[in-house]
Design a protein that fits this description.
This protein is of the alpha/beta class and 344 residues long. Helix content is 41%, strand content 17%. The protein has one domain: Rossmann fold (3-Layer(aba) Sandwich). Strands 3-2-1-4-5-8-13 form a 7-stranded parallel β-sheet, with helices on both faces. Strands 14-11-16 form a 3-stranded mixed β-sheet, with no helix packed on it.
Length: 344
């Protein structure tokens, strides 16, 4: 297999961690990124310092530029499409931009892969938001969290799609295009419906990357708002575990092409975003954290926990890093790099 990697959004949180892993294995990597996110130039600088300035190729480009995308990925044997508009709130304010980046941008990358003549592997980072608010699934309120009433293993890939918010629609459109390109064109594509990914190199902001944002805000003393009741549950997944899944997909692509996988922490890594995460963070900080409370945000799920049994079975994969261990790692990384966040 041609293992020349083309990573859209390769300067982002997930992308920079994956590029670092690939370079450690001496893989050939092209990063395609418009460097618009605040942390992207810092991640590129980190990669160059760690791996050498000529260890990878950087193309500063936008996925909305179909011609540049197509030209840039002619040699790609593995395409990992991570570039995206990532915030529900931003999609509500700027729905056209959200559509152009997430739906049309994904189409552009897909077309580039279809016609590059290399029969590439194509991994798409989708989202659990394609399942919407899951209003048909009963939830039960407990003292510190919500939980599914009748889904002990979490939400499976068979849960009906219900795109909610412009972000859900645009990512959902990309999700379905990637699935269909496997059916219609034989593209060796896989959709990864990802839960809350967290870890080092994540420059979280209030409306995206909540775990990192809360750690950053706590350490730097920034105002912290909790939307809803703080009992919303997510199954957080450390970025290194996610990258293990990507590697497994690539290794088993002929068995899993055309498939969809829910990739999250699963029932073993459920945590409520404040009622349980908050005390964990306060323990690391060594003092109480003041918060402001605000109304629920549109499209916010009371519970999302991925049923990861399909990935366990077909990829031989499961999370290795517990929520407690992963949050401690994230806290240490932010603390060690506190200056990066105080500069912003």
């Amino acid at each position: 297999m041609n293992k020349e990697y083309f990573i859209t959004g390769g300067a982002g949180f997930i992308g920079s961690n994956f590029v670092n892993r690939l370079l450690e294995r001496n893989e050939k990597v092209t990063i395609y990124d418009n460097l618009s996110r605040a942390g992207a130039p810092m991640n590129i600088r980190w990669l160059r310092e760690k791996r050498g300035g000529d260890s990878f190729k950087l193309i500063e480009g936008d996925v909305r530029d179909a011609d540049l995308v197509t030209h840039s990925m002619q040699a790609a044997g593995v395409v990992v499409h991570l570039a995206a508009q990532v915030a529900v709130t931003s999609s509500v304010v700027k729905p056209r931009e959200d559509f152009e980046i997430n739906a049309q941008g994904t189409f552009n990358v897909l077309e580039g892969a279809r016609i590059n003549g290399k029969d590439p592997v194509f991994i798409f980072a989708s989202t659990n938001k394609v399942y919407g608010e899951m209003e048909n699934v009963a939830v039960v309120e407990e003292a510190t969290h919500w939980r599914y009433d009748n889904l002990p293993n979490g939400c499976s890939e068979d849960q009906p799609l219900d795109f909610h918010s412009p972000y859900g629609c645009s990512k959902g459109a990309g999700d379905q295009y990637v699935r269909d390109y496997a059916r219609i064109y034989g593209l060796r594509s896989v959709v990864c419906r990802q839960s809350c990914i967290y870890g080092p190199r994540q420059f979280g902001v209030e409306d995206q990357g909540w775990a990192a944002w809360m750690v950053i805000a706590a350490i730097t003393g920034r105002p912290l708002s909790i939307y809803g009741d703080g009992k919303q549950v997510r199954d957080i997944l450390h970025v290194e575990d996610l990258l293990d899944a990507y590697d497994a997909i690539i290794d088993r692509i002929d068995q899993v092409k055309g498939q969809v996988f829910n990739l999250g922490g699963g029932p073993g890594n459920m945590i409520s975003i404040w009622k349980e995460f908050g005390p964990m963070l306060e323990k690391h900080l060594g003092k109480p954290i003041p918060v402001a409370w605000a109304d629920w945000r549109p499209g916010d799920q009371k519970v999302f926990v991925a049923d990861i049994r399909k990935a366990q079975k077909e990829l031989g994969w499961q999370p290795r890093i517990s929520a407690a261990a992963g949050v401690e790692k994230l806290y240490r990384w932010v603390k060690e790099n506190e200056g990066l966040f105080r500069e912003k």
